Amino acid sequence: MISLSLTQLNERVVACRRCPRLVQWREHIAHEKRAAFRNEEYWGRPLPGFGDPKAGVLICGLAPAAHGGNRTGRIFTGDRSGDWLYGALYRAGFANQPTSTHRNDGLRLTDCYVSACVRCAPPANKPTPIERDACLPFLVADLRLLARLRVIVCLGAFAWDGVLRALRGVGAVAPRKPRFGHGSETVIGRYALLGCYHPSQQNTFTKRLTPAMLDAVFRRARRLAAQCSVEPVAP
Questions:
Q1: Domains along the chain with CATH numbers
Q2: Does the model's pTM come out above 0.70?
Q3: Tens of pLDDT along 82-107?
Q4: Most-buried pick from 7, 111, 114, 157 (CB within 10 A)?
Q5: What is the per-residue DSSP string for the chain?
């Protein structure tokens, strides 16, 4: 995938049918729909990355939500997690608007790109290790093609582990595995990794993650990206 453009990579992502269980689930959800969205046409396919191809900051999540990204066709869009994420990106100056509702809503990201470890909505939001590994080359390709990338924000422990695996795919290996935590920070190769609790309702309803905590992570990401800015490295 190294010779692909980012657009070509995302076309391959959308066409992927590698994991039978995920294909069946995402298409079942798109057919059955949730009552509140019964008049909408669901995306029902893998999700490509979204954002600025010249991004210095990558945000990585776990996987699309069944009635969020799997419905709208954009990562972290159409659910409460996305409301929290894009609101924070707007406050940090990465987004031109605080909401992300559908693919044609006018949202634009600057110096920021959003992706995920697994590109299809998994049952119970739990991909298997085989499904995780099947999707890994797409994240590795993101890292190679985002030539200005210097900072990666990992939303949750699953994303933290997935990014560490992907970094090994581009030759960036930590001497020992860094532990995930909210506010965790480490440098591996030319990348700074930041840990952040996932903005799931489980975390936001219980106030394990607050808007102030999320804002602090993205302020830090912006500062690090500015400090690490150098000439692009060819993928």
A1: 6-227 (3.40.470.10)
A2: yes
A3: 999 999 999 999 999 999 999 999 99
A4: 114
A5: -TTS-HHHHHHHHHH----HHHHHHHHHHHHH--GGGTTSPP--SPPPPEE-TT-SEEEEES---TTTHHHHSSTT-SSHHHHHHHHHHHHTTSBSSS---STTS---BSSEEEEES--SPPGGG---HHHHHHHHHHHHHHHHH-TT--EEEEESHHHHHHHHHHHHHTT---SSPPPP-TT-EEEETTEEEEEE----HHHHHTTSS-HHHHHHHHHHHHHHHHHT--SPPP-
